[in-house]
Recover the amino acids of this structure.
């Protein structure tokens, strides 16, 4: 079982995705209460922030979690491993072709 405060906090990741023009910088803020998660995701590419932070909600199931925005357009799947969030981000409905992996570390 994951501790209640295990993933709460600010996280960041640098990743690559050609669908977004190459380099990505992601900021993720999470709050965990029991098995429930809420948070926001900011995606920056080409030195510009995406249109607005995405509000996310989801839950843990075992040692894995799933988060999605209200419309299900952005989905984030992952787990906490060795102090890092190992995730797969699907940036749109049925957009597996644009999906990418991102490893988040705690922001300073």
């Amino acid at each position: 079982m994951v501790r209640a405060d295990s993933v709460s906090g600010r996280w960041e990741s640098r990743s690559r995705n050609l669908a977004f023009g190459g380099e990505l910088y992601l900021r993720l803020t999470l709050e965990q209460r029991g098995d429930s998660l809420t948070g926001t995701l900011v995606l920056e590419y080409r030195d510009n922030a995406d249109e607005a932070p995405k509000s996310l909600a989801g839950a843990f199931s075992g040692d894995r979690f799933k988060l999605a925005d209200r419309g299900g357009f952005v989905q984030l799947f992952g787990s906490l491993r060795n102090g890092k969030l190992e995730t797969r981000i699907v940036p749109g409905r049925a957009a597996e072709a644009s999906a990418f992996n991102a490893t988040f570390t705690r922001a300073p």
